[in-house]
Amino acid sequence: MTRLLVLSRSAVGPRMASPGVRAYQLAGALGRALPAAEITLGIPGDREPIAPPAPNVRMQAWSSNAEAAFLAAAHDVTIARNFPPQLARVLGKTRFALDAFTPFYVEWMELSRRDILPKWRRTWMASNRSYINFQLTLADFIFCADERQRDMWIGMMMALALVPPDVYERDPSLRRVIDVVPYGVPSRPLSPGRRVLRGVVPGIEEGDRVLLWNGGITEWNDVETLLHAMARLVRTRPEVKLVFMGVSHPDMVFGPTSGVNKLAYELSEELGLKDRNVFILNGWVPYEEIDNYLAEADASVCLGYENIESRFAFRTRYVDLFRARVPLLCTQGDVLANRVHDAPMGLTVPERDIDAVVDGITRLLDDRDFVATCKANMATMATELSWDTVVQPLVDFCVSGESYAMPAGRRRLQSYARGGMYVAFKRLCLSPPIYDH
Fold first, then answer.
1. In Å, how far from its chain's centre is CA 12?
2. Interacting residues of 236 by C-beta distance below 8 A, sequence separation 6+
3. Full pLDDT tens readout for the chain, 437 residues
4. CB atoms < 10 A from the CB of 376, how many?
5. Sheet (strand 346-349) strand order
6. Strands (E), 327-437
7. Is residue 205 helix, strand or coil?
8. Rounded Cα distance, 258 and 262, in Å
């Protein structure tokens, strides 16, 4: 019997962000695809309970890296978004599948601008680079969100000498070493249970048009352009209300006082929009409540920048919009923005273009024929991104019993060396006061 461990490093429970949701849904999709398998979903720390995602999925809390290594050794395959260094000692005893759906390095580069003192930023990023090198070395199989990301990871693997001639000869496509498993959506239709915005949030009334910012506000989001566009729009369209769904990230990555969240609070108040046309919800919307918010949205908006982060991003916040058929306005440049434009499923705009944002929102609210086309195309996209469909490359790896990566014996020394470099950098980073708080 195949024993699989999905090791979440992020919160899994009633309130969870995209990494926790992905671990939860991958465990469920694996359980449905492999009903005879024993699947453990490892949850960090003591969390509020949540129902298992499939009947053959067992939920188990873990609280230390040593405990994570013990869990991994008891399973045939260990699946995680990132592996603690302690797991190097079980390389060869379990096959490792690395969930690389996030371009970690670029996101950490953005966060370091906010959190790390400038003189320590280079050292902190060197630590993170060593951490990524360790992850790629440990992995028997890597799965990412799209083909653009796959190209990025293959380049990094080649630079680390993880694609030697014998690996290439066994699989010149490298599909059995690294493949694509996009961030998916549940197959069930939208099922709202109650009103949560109109007539519930003070200032949002029946007849108002709701724009939804589906997710948190991160360092790579451009709220400044959106708020200035709202200030211009509501002069003639006071019924337009923008709702940010939450600012208290379950994994404590972003909070109400972090850089971009703080900017959103302060600028919306300065422009006279806060609690009149812009509503920033406290806390974090529970996972089971998301359908209620999606059902009340006339359109959605998410702005960012045309930079290296957007080049390799797969905007997980978009996929629920596809499932809910909520037309989207977003900044051009990332993979899903290209799909939004081409299908179409909404509109894309250049970065920092206030006029284009105003015009785009107006069209999504007023052009009924265009919106109907967007909704039909979103239904097709949601079917394509069903968790039970996208998980197949990971299922194939789990049942194969094989690894097409460089043999574990040759990777072991490299994994110890790269894991050791990460630990050394981490200790160096922790010795001085590097955080700018």
1. 14
2. none
3. 799 999 999 999 999 999 999 999 999 999 999 999 999 999 998 766 789 999 999 999 999 999 999 999 999 999 999 999 999 999 999 999 999 999 888 888 888 877 788 888 888 888 889 999 999 999 999 999 999 999 999 999 999 999 999 999 999 999 999 999 999 999 988 999 999 999 999 999 999 999 999 988 888 899 999 999 999 999 999 999 999 998 877 776 666 667 788 899 999 999 999 999 999 998 889 999 999 999 999 999 999 999 999 999 999 999 999 999 999 999 999 999 999 999 999 999 999 999 999 999 999 999 999 999 999 999 999 999 999 999 999 999 999 999 999 999 999 999 988 888 888 877 776 554 443 43
4. 12
5. 278-280, 240-244, 209-213, 299-302, 328-331, 346-349
6. 328-331, 346-349
7. coil
8. 6
Q: Which residues contact 9 (CB under 8 A, 6 or more apart)?
A: 19, 44, 80, 81, 82
Domains by residue range for the chain, with CATH = 3-184+389-430 (3.40.50), 209-385 (3.40.50.2000)
Look up the pTM and report it: 0.94
Under 8 Å between Cβ of 94 and 75: yes
d(CA 117, CA 350): 31
The DSSP secondary-structure symbol of 345 reads S
Structure tokens at 370: 């265009």
Report the amino acid identity of residue 354: I
Q: Which residue reads 């926790």 in tokens?
A: 20
